[in-house]
Amino acid sequence: MGNRKGVTLIELLIAIALLAVISAIGLLILNPATFMAKRRDAVRISDINVMQAAINAYIIEENHPPCPEQVYSSIYCDGYYESPGSYTCTTQEMKNPDGVGWIENGTSEGSCLMSRYISELRIDPVNNDTYMYRYKANAGKFELDIKFEADSNKGKMKTDGGNDDNWYEVGTDKSLI
Hints:
Blueprint: H1 9-29, H2 32-62, E1 71-73, H3 91-94, E2 134-138, E3 141-146, H4 151-158, E4 168-171
Antiparallel strand pairs: 1-2, 2-3, 3-4
């Protein structure tokens, strides 16, 4: 046996095969799609908590929740869920808390000016026809909804005390939407 100064082709192929097996196992365990869905759900939970706190602060000062009567959705520029807007707007315009964002000042029964309570309205990380935020106020009560993406969070939508098992509902009346 002489002095070996390199790696044989067989040893190299075995090392590459081991790395491939370890990588495949890692990808199966750390499923990136599930990880990203859980991350977006964490953003949704944070957003709904911030918005709920702002609405509660508004109620304390104004004695009613902002923007009564309409169902608002974060996917429409004018906010209305039941009659989608016909114009486009930027993400920054949708986040505007001064009655022109997705929760807008379109009623004569109450103001939607929320800038004293929140710096910007939150929008869903995906923000499409499936994943959006919804809001409605009526008779001094409100409901704010989000939809979870990760399977591990979907059970929360059934146990939140609301009337719709397909949405995670918070607020003072979880039957408004």
